[in-house]
Amino acid sequence: MPRLDAADLRERMARDLPGAVLEAVPLQVAAAPTHGPQPGAFLTSDTLVAPSRLVEAACYLRDLLGYAYLSDIAVVDYLADDLFELVYRFYHVEGGEGLTIKVRIPRDHPEVPSLTPAWPGANFHEREAFDLYGIVFVGHPFLRRIYMWDEFEGFPMRKDFPKQGDKYIGADE
Amino acid sequence: MLKTEELQINIGPQHPSTHGVFRMIVTVDGETITDLKPVFGYLHRNHEQIAEQNTYLQNMPYTDRLDYFNSMANNQAYAMAIEKMVGIEVPERAEYLRVMMVELTRILNHAGALGFLINDMGMWQTQLAFGMREREKILDLFESASGARLMCNYFRFGGVVRDLPPDFIPRLKELLQAMPAFVDELERLLRENEILMQRAEGIGILPRDLALAYSVSGPVLRGSGIPYDVRKAEPYSVYDRFDFDVPVGTVGDVYDRFLVRIEEMRQSRRILEQVLEQLPDAQGGHINPKARQNVRPPVGDVYARIESPKGELGFYLVSDGSGKPYRYKVRAPSFINLTPLGDMCRGYKVADVVVILGSIDIVMGEVDR
């Protein structure tokens, strides 16, 4: 079984793909609460990759390290930090723990290269991220809403999406 | 050569074999499928956002509603994520109880899935009733342990909500004793069934390399010949103590996925026998008495996954230090297993679509979230 952990991956990737690995900046996660203890900053131990080098880094994981199974793509909206974080999780088919790479993109320009041409399995993950967060995956062959209807406006999983009221109710009257 | 024109037809959203509300836009050339686009989201309720409004414990019964066939497995993945995040220890006995419930879930899921699949092939009700009969027995056991048949809500952080009732173990032993006859019967129904063989063999082939590229998991991945099972690949709970095999297929067609499920039921029975053997010696109670249920995990993220009956089920959670998750993401196996549906159906006949879809074994509650 392959035994690579997050620190090994960061080291190897920084060596083999110069310039692709970024220094992780601690995240505030949420706006400071008005009462109670202040939450600590969130400093990730996973490898942070430059958005423009994402495909290269993913192919490095697959072709050189053998982590060929793309298990999950999750998006997190860090509103207080004004960025989206995409979490890509890869596994080795022989087993063992997975490796994670993260990509941070600004909230006002959420664009990232698509993995779907290289990994057909990323298709629905990316469509879900587009539907619920409005992340634009450049190069995706069929980037359409997957859950919400096509005419829906807004991205419901964003932290600033209004949770009270529904503009569709009473719109016809 | 006769010149033909391509035609688009709609299967669903309301169709008895789509296992929920699921639509497929199929492009056909004569009877042959040239393209298929799945359309779903009819049951979408933004599960993930609702979960962000709930406390961590309130989400435990809510995970039952994802894959309503396998509520116990959903509970386990979610409980594991929280335990990893907060650092709660689970007593040995509780781990055995969890494994017992999840393996029972696997048996009932596969019994149901196989029954539905044969039903989809047009052999109405008889075989489905066989599967449902076994499922009922397991649901009765769940009811005696958790109080509910489907929405069990049995797991808690650090263990399970209550210990087994006194008559549970004898009833389970009885069920396990009767099980091989049922599985053999089900296998005979399929291996000696002309209709099924003709409609399953060589249909919906998903080759090995494509299965991996499409990130499918569970019986679909193993049916294509990749022996990947989270219970073996990254053992969690007490799975490293059991002796069991991971069945794999050879071709990756509907028939292989069928056989893999049958064999998995036998392997689950093997695990259950070992659980019954080891359970009396297990240390601790059914729950860690020090485990708090109103957890406030430290700031950070965590991912925990299990081998649910349908594939790899994972929860990705981000905590901001409060009592509610900042981000709650479900890696739903049926959702991802649908990705290659278009490729699996291309070149086959329209009538094969329902069979191929049935062999993936989806639950719309989990696909649409």
TrEMBL record, chain A:
Give the main localization category. membrane
Stated EC number for the protein is 7.1.1.-
Keywords annotated in UniProt: Cell membrane, Membrane, NAD, Quinone, Translocase, Transport, Ubiquinone
Please name the Gene3D superfamilies in this protein's record.
Answer: NADH:ubiquinone oxidoreductase, 30kDa subunit
Q: Where is the NADH:ubiquinone oxidoreductase 30kDa subunit domain?
A: 49-166
Per its record, the protein catalyses:
a quinone + NADH + 5 H(+)(in) = a quinol + NAD(+) + 4 H(+)(out)
Q: What does this protein do?
A: NDH-1 shuttles electrons from NADH, via FMN and iron-sulfur (Fe-S) centers, to quinones in the respiratory chain. The immediate electron acceptor for the enzyme in this species is believed to be ubiquinone. Couples the redox reaction to proton translocation (for every two electrons transferred, four hydrogen ions are translocated across the cytoplasmic membrane), and thus conserves the redox energy in a proton gradient.
Q: Which family does it belong to?
A: Belongs to the complex I 30 kDa subunit family.
Protein's name according to its UniProt entry: NADH-quinone oxidoreductase subunit C
Source species of the chain: Candidatus Chloroploca mongolica
User: What is the taxonomic lineage of the source species?
Assistant: Bacteria, Bacillati, Chloroflexota, Chloroflexia, Chloroflexales
Gene encoding the protein: nuoC
Automatic annotation (TrEMBL), chain B:
- Name the HAMAP family for this protein: NDH1_NuoD
Per the UniProt entry, the Enzyme Commission number(s) are 7.1.1.-
Family indicated by similarity: Belongs to the complex I 49 kDa subunit family.
The principal localisation class reads membrane
Q: Where are the annotated coiled coils located?
A: 172-203
Q: Where in the cell is it found?
A: Cell membrane
Name the chain's protein: NADH-quinone oxidoreductase subunit D
Give the record's keywords alphabetically: Cell membrane, Coiled coil, Membrane, NAD, Oxidoreductase, Quinone, Translocase, Transport, Ubiquinone
**Enzyme class, UniProt record, top EC level:** translocase
Lineage, top ranks: Bacteria, Bacillati, Chloroflexota, Chloroflexia, Chloroflexales
Segments forming domain NADH-quinone oxidoreductase subunit D = 125-285, 292-369
Summarizing the function annotation, the protein's role is:
NDH-1 shuttles electrons from NADH, via FMN and iron-sulfur (Fe-S) centers, to quinones in the respiratory chain. The immediate electron acceptor for the enzyme in this species is believed to be ubiquinone. Couples the redox reaction to proton translocation (for every two electrons transferred, four hydrogen ions are translocated across the cytoplasmic membrane), and thus conserves the redox energy in a proton gradient.
Annotated InterPro entries: NADH_Q_OxRdtase_suD, NDH1_su_D/H, NiFe-Hase_large
Domain of life where this protein originates: Bacteria
* Single Gene Ontology MF annotation: oxidoreductase activity
